[in-house]
Amino acid sequence: MILSTLFALLISSSFAHNGLVEEGFLVRDSNKIFLKHIQRHKDLVVDHMDKKSYEVYGPHGLGTWLESMGADITDLAVIDGLDEKAAGDYPTPEEISDQLLKLSQKFPNIMTLSSIGQTREGRNLWVMKISDNPTVDEVEPEVKYIANMHGNEIVGRELMLKLIEDIGNRYNAGDKDIIELVDNTEVFIMPSMNPDGALKRQRGNGAWKDLNRNFPDFSTQDNRDVPDGREPETKAVMAWQNSRNFSLSANFHGGTKVVNYPWDTTRDPAPLTDLIVELSGEYASKVDGFFNSTEFPGGIVNGNAWYEVDGGMQDWSYYYHNDLQVTIELSHTKWPPYSDIPQYYSENAWSLVRFLKRIHQGLGVKLPDHSPSGKMTLYRLINGQKQKIGDYKISGGEFYKVLNQGVYEVIVTLDSGETKTTRVDVNFDLLRPNGNFLSLWP
Ligand SMILES: [Zn+2]
């Protein structure tokens, strides 16, 4: 009783949805007896739920509190902690920086490396841009991958490095698929959003904060898309997102094998759920452990149907920024032996490239320099009927949207008052110049 009260005081002092994750436990609770008590504490983080158990993260005192309730728990540091030799085989964040710099020097024709900010401990947050003319900001659709926002979920970071190298090699070898991707797209890859956490093999960042509970969330009180009070890594990603025009992305984690799709924070269906399910299913369809999953049919799951996440990056990205994001859990083991990485890459290689290419199933508009802001209204034409898809604000001169295949009526209205209307056939196999950007104002 006293412990419980102390703990409640302890966690109420930090603000909601900004989870402090100093301790983590696997809770065996097949009847979900303890889950109600845990979820009452909005600051605790529940993750990776299955029929028998789930993970809980929180501040110091969490383990004592769970034990005081009689929960059957195991410290995740024990479960995830492989022998130190396996841990030691992985590159340090500084070695990762070095590897990225070398890749950018090996493929200067299609890659540039830049830092979008610093972590709490002052490490750079590196992003590799991959495109033809990589030093020029071209009018092309923008797609991104972010990995390793949970420091102890390491497979994504390594797969991103392998993917960058693979794209570079295949481009220079004349691979048609890759050339089509690189020449018509701006691809951005951030292998590690949490290098401070990766160094210590911990979920949280340098301040033990869970970065995937640290974003604005439209269904909570923390619903203003502003950086105030968030972690430096979160702020950096938010500023980066504001500076670009991303419209498709994925965010890589570990702990199970599944593609988790929006929303996480509410039961309501996200816009274009049929398209999201299709993209998620396609990724899963070629990866062992996904398509043949016994836990998740087809290797995909709706986030909220699995367990609610508030303050996650995926929902923030799609809700506030028209950037359709899914969360891909790559491995049952969060920190597998380093020697297993090539196997994970070969299993995911096709899907990783294919998902990037799927951005070409959509359409974009470039507004004229004299009026770079306006709005787009989109209708889908089905059997002669117009079905409204949505109204979208355009700023910064460019807008792109990933869509279901079909015929669309596009109405673009500039702030200056000019309007243009056109019809477009959105078809994955029909790639137009500039990755499907329409030239309404040539
Ligand atoms: Zn994770």
Structural features, described:
The protein is built from 15 helices and 19 strands. α7 packs across α14. The protein has 3 domains: 2-80, 2-Layer Sandwich (Alpha-Beta Plaits); 85-360, Zn peptidases (Aminopeptidase, 3-Layer(aba) Sandwich), CATH 3.40.630; 363-438, Sandwich (Immunoglobulin-like). The chain is 32% helix and 26% strand. It starts with a helix and ends with a strand. β17 (406-414) and β18 form a beta hairpin. It has helices at 2-12, 35-40, 62-68, 76-80, 84-88, 93-106, 155-172, 176-184, 195-200, 232-243, 273-285, 303-306, 313-321, 341-357, 433-436; strands spanning 23-28, 45-47, 53-58, 72-75, 111-118, 124-130, 142-147, 186-190, 246-253, 257-261, 300-302, 324-330, 362-366, 374-382, 385-394, 398-402, 406-414, 419-426, 437-438. With 442 residues, the chain is an alpha/beta fold. The longest helix is centred in the middle third of the chain and has 18 residues, at 155-172. Mean pLDDT is 93; it is low at 9-17. The chain is globular. An 8-stranded mixed sheet has the order 5-6-8-7-9-12-10-11, sandwiched between helices. Strands 2-3-1-4 form a 4-stranded antiparallel sheet. Bound molecules: zinc ion (ZN). The site of zinc ion has 3 residues, from loops.
